[in-house]
Design goal:
By secondary structure, the protein is α+β, with helices and mostly antiparallel strands. The protein contains 6 helices and 18 strands. It is globular, with a radius of gyration of 18 Å.
Length: 263
């Protein structure tokens, strides 16, 4: 039997944050099976974890539509499950081998801290069709490795966006990050993430987007330690630290269900 879990990531409360499925594999699985499993789960990401050594694991992520190269919340969920199930001792670090290189996970102040590659966006000219599809008036546009980043004038404007997902799906290979300075002193910035091209209209909390958001806002605010809120309907909190070319992304996680897959 294959163990499977559903974990809400970037939250300490069930039914908030971003849900991810985590499958613990004992051996390599066919890619077609993983794609079908992710479609069956119908969550923004399903993570497949296979041991390579005592503390090193292969990690792959699938949306209901495609395999992706980098995912934060499902990595957080995978680390949470490995510690919870005592596959790895709770205070021991974990290494994941992925399509984006080696990623690390460890404990930091009771939260899970991920070590991800930084991805400072490069400023670009606004694309009119993209702004129309998102429904945004940009004060900044940038291009990161996977996504376009759009900054809008206020958190209120960000929260009121109602994108045309059918139109947006035709314009971007992965997704669009929209961000603004936070209205509350509790956070440094807020964001939303739209990715209909990979089967996710709006992702609740997107760890990988903060590989671009953290260095961008670090430069804007002149600080390396940041607190962010992703302003989706479910919402989620991330603590961030820019460390050279890496971004340390911290969050909480809670298990919602545990089960077994029939062969």
């Amino acid at each position: 039997m294959i163990k499977i879990f559903q974990v809400d990531a970037f939250t300490g409360e069930k039914f908030r944050g971003n849900p991810a499925a985590v499958c613990l594999l004992e051996e390599e699985a066919p890619e077609s099976w993983m794609a079908s499993m992710a479609a069956e789960m119908n969550l923004s990401e399903t993570a497949f974890v296979r041991p390579l050594s005592a503390k090193t694991f292969e990690l792959r992520w699938f949306t209901p539509a495609v395999e992706v190269e980098l995912c934060g919340h499902a990595t957080l969920a995978a680390a949470h499950v490995l510690w919870q199930e005592e596959v790895v001792a709770e205070q021991e670090p974990i290494r994941f081998q992925t399509r984006s290189g080696t990623l690390g996970a460890g404990r930091s102040g009771g939260w899970i801290q991920l070590d991800f590659p930084g991805d400072l966006p490069q400023e670009t000219e606004p694309v009119k069709e993209l702004l129309i599809a998102v429904g945004a008036d940009a004060v900044y546009c940038g291009a990161a490795r996977f996504d376009v980043l759009i900054r809008v004038a206020s958190e209120q404007e960000l929260r009121s966006l109602t994108p045309d997902f059918n139109r947006l799906k035709l314009l971007q290979p992965r997704g669009v990050i929209v961000t603004a300075a936070a209205a509350s002193a509790q956070y440094d910035f807020v964001s939303r993430f739209f990715a209909p091209a990979v089967g996710i209209d709006e992702d609740p909390v997107t760890g990988s987007a903060h590989c671009a958001l953290a260095p961008y806002w670090s430069g804007e605010l002149g600080k390396t330690a940041l607190t962010a809120y992703q302003a989706s309907a479910r919402g989620g909190v991330l603590r961030l630290k820019v460390a050279g070319e890496r971004v340390l992304i911290s969050g909480e996680a809670v298990t919602v269900l545990r089960g077994e897959l029939y062969p």
